[in-house]
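Same chain as my last thread, 210 residues:
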Amino acid sequence: MTSANAGSLGGLVALRRGEAHLAGSHLLDPQTGEYNVSYVKQYLPDVPGRSGDVRPPRARADRRAGNPKGIKGLADLARSDVCYVNRQRGAGTRILLDYCLGQLGIESAQVCGYAREEYTHLAVAVAVQSGVADCGLGIAAAARALKLDFVPLEQERYDLVIPRAHYESDLLRPLLDLIRGPDFRRAVTELPGYDATHMGEATALYRMSE
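reply #2:
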C-alpha cells in the first residue's frame, strides 16, 4: 500500500479518477459548518461511499518556542511583523484558515507569507522552527515533535472517505480492523489533542445509490 500527500481536495479528486482506494478529508463547508459532506457530494456524486471517523486534534497556530513575537491567534496574522507559512490550495487546513480570516475580516493580501505553501503539517512546523516563518496552522503532534509553542483553535472532523466497493472488499479489511482495534485507539489517544471516541465508526456521508 502506498500513500501520497495531495491535500483533502486532491484526495477526493484522486478517488473520482480511480487513482486511490481511500482518501483522508477534513474539509470545512463555511456555509453549513459541516465537514466533508458537501465536498463528497460535489466531487463524488456517483460514487457510493462511506467514511471512517478518525477525529484529529484541533488545528493549531504553531509558533516558535518561547513565542518571541507574542502571537496569540490568527488575528495576529494581520500584523506587519508576523510572517506566516501556509498549506497548499485545496488542503483542509487552508480552507479552515481562509474561513477564519473571513470571520476576522482579514484579507489574504494582508498576511505576510500567505503565498508560501507547504504540503504537510510537519513541513509547516519545520518552516516555523527554522525561522522561515513565525507561525503556521497545523496539528499539535507536529508542533510537539519540533518543540514549538501552539494555540488551540478548532476541533476538526477527519474522515477516511472510501468508495463502497473498496470498503466492502478484502483489500482494506486489515486497515479497517487496525483502526477499530484497541491498540491503535490507545496509540492515537496518547497523541496530543486527538479524540478517538468515534474512531472507526462507519458513516454514510450521503445517500447511497442502489
